[in-house]
Amino acid sequence: MSRSDLPAAVATLRRVREDPHRLGHRAHGPEGPVAGTGHGTTGPASKRIIVGYGFWIFLLSDIVMFSCFFAAFAVQSRATAGGPTIAEIVDLRRVAFETAALLLSSYTCGLSFAATNARSRLWTQVFLLATGLLGLAFVLMEAQEFYGLAVRGITPQRSGALTAFFGLVGLHGVHVTVGGLWLATMMAQVQVKGFRQHIVHRLICFNLFWHALDIVWIGIFTIVYLMGSLA
Amino acid sequence: MSNLEFDPHLYTGSLDQREDHAPGDEPEESAGDWIRNANLGLGFSVVLTVASFWVALAHEVWGPAVPVALIVLAIAQMGVHLVFFLHVTTGPDNTNNVLALAYGVMVVFLIVVGSVWIMAHLSANMMPAGAIMHMAP
Questions:
Q1: Model confidence over B17-52: pLDDT tens digits?
Q2: I want to staple B48 with a disulfide (CB 3.0 to 4.6 A). Which of A26, B29, B77, B87 is the partner?
Q3: Where in the sequence is the domain holding B95, given as residue range(s)?
Q4: Which residues on A lie below 8 Å from B124 (Cβ)?
Q5: How many domains does chain B have?
């Protein structure tokens, strides 16, 4: 069969493929299903892209807020006013467990969204539950740390260094706690409403939030705990 | 196009659902990519985290270099998280996210480095506490 025998629709398709701009079609041809951002050749952005972008802006603003607490800690970390130094209050063994819990929860969170993409409600719930339990373990370890310090009279009002320490680490802990509440809400919504489009979008936002918290924790365990233990 | 009943799927397989889409359609994402990314992200993160704790605790690295090594490892791990967990890519669906990220990094850099810089100079130039007390009338 020669090419001239092809039906008209296929010939049209060929022309579209040969159009270097692929007007009205995907930017990367058939093998790359790429959703566009709204400019150029791919048409208006999908809601998934826009929702992710909006939440990304929020996350960046959250990280800017954390950076203020990091700056305060960097400036204040030696202002101990005769009280305990940061090196005296860090327990690196606990920090190692906290880091492991949060990193594993990031992993299970990523897997939960893979299960969402496969539209498997069971595995989405299983991995979300694992994420929540690891997050809970993290929060409990941090609460135990704060309680142990408070019993020894080491509280935020003791010195500038301790104010900055409790402020920064506590702010992160509050974020993880709120993230856990959000996670429980999402599990209920997945169970009751299933994988409707807006539920999937919320799951995407939750994923972004949880991973961003892990990024902040990298900064905390490096700057507050590991570098604090050196001094 | 004269032949409206013709369905190209049947004859050529050259057009599939992914290629022909309406504006605003959301392409299906494969679960495999996410699992692969999560595995790679976890692997790199574990290596970098263990390296951080080792550098800080083992005393094998020259002392003054330890803080620098820790910061480099932390930045590397943040990059790993951005790529493998947050799925920041160079694709056209991510250009806006990358630009916003660049702006965010700039603001964070200004706040942290600016604060440390200014406060270090202030601290170095400040009068000792005793001298201030004597100035009071």
A1: 444 556 666 767 778 888 999 999 999 999 999 999
A2: B77
A3: 91-137
A4: none
A5: 2
Q: Has residue B51 been placed in a domain?
A: yes
Q: Which domains does chain A have, with CATH numbers?
A: 1-45 (no CATH), 47-230 (1.20.120.80)
Q: Do B30 and A110 touch (CB under 8 A)?
A: no
Give the DSSP letter string of chain A. Answer: --GGGS-HHHHHHHHHHH-TT-TTS-TT-TT------SSTTS-SPPHHHHHHHHHHHHHHHHHHHHHHHHHHHHHHTT--TTS--HHHH--HHHHHHHHHHHHHHHHHHHHHHHHHHTT-HHHHHHHHHHHHHHHHHHHHHHHHHHHHHHHTT--GGG-HHHHHHHHHHHHHHHHHHHHHHHHHHHHHHHHHH-S-HHHHHHHHHHHHHHHHHHHHHHHIIIIIIIHHHH-
Of the two residues A108 and B29, the one the predictor is more confident about is A108
Interface test with B, best of A106, A123, A216 (most B CBs within 10 A): A106
Q: In this structure, are B106 and B130 located in the same domain?
A: yes
Cβ of B111 within 8 Å of Cβ of A30? The answer is no
Name the domain boundary from B47, B67, B87.
B87
Q: Does B42 map to a domain?
A: yes
pTM: 0.81
C-beta atoms of B6 and A197 within 8 A: no
Say yes or no to pLDDT of B127 above 70.
Answer: no
pLDDT of A5-61, one tens digit each? 666 666 666 655 554 444 444 444 444 444 555 545 556 778 888 899 999 999 999
